[in-house]
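Q: My labmate handed me this sequence with no annotations at all. I'd like to see what the chain might look like in three dimensions before we decide whether it's worth expressing. Could you predict it?
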Amino acid sequence: MGSALQTPSRWDGADAEQEALTVYDETLRPLGTAPRGEVHRRGLLHQVVHGWVASRGPAGVGLWFQQRAFSKRDYPGRYDLAVGGHVDAGEDWRMAMAREMREELGLSPSPDRLAYLGLSRRELRDGPFWDREFARVFLLWEDAPAFQPGPEVAAVVQVPLEAFQAHLAGAPEVTGRLSDGTPRRIAAAEWAPLPPDFPALVLPALLAGTGL
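A: Here is what I predict for the chain of 212 residues:
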């Protein structure tokens, strides 16, 4: 993939750097708040939400992933889980999940359809970016999603479960499909660093949801 424009946007610009996030100690006890930019410079532990979206069809289970907007500062144009975002200071994490689902994908499922799977932890260092987070992980089954991607999302692509597992096992490339059915080939280098939710939390829920 060629070089991507990295124009500051409303979600990656100065305003976003100043948004307040709650910071936590290692027991997940809140300690106070800090600006988002400081949280990622100092590696302060904070809370996020991760939303996985799956569909059932004649060919089996497919997982939906977003292609990050090319104007994003972090990993522009790369493929990421369907929905992810910060929980703002004072915000309920379930409401944060619903908000991110609406802002990024244009979906507004009823709260009972957002299955809460549990917590995952991640630490990622990439140059000056230091991300220490704990995530509230959700799964949405949506067999005929009517996506209306927001400005943070360049495209939404479905990847068969088996192909995604092959990617995690080191496959150099997988093929998915856009919501209109257009094939989309995704090389291993085109993925953003994915969170560690899948093996312990997401895969068991997928297998339970399909009766396997």
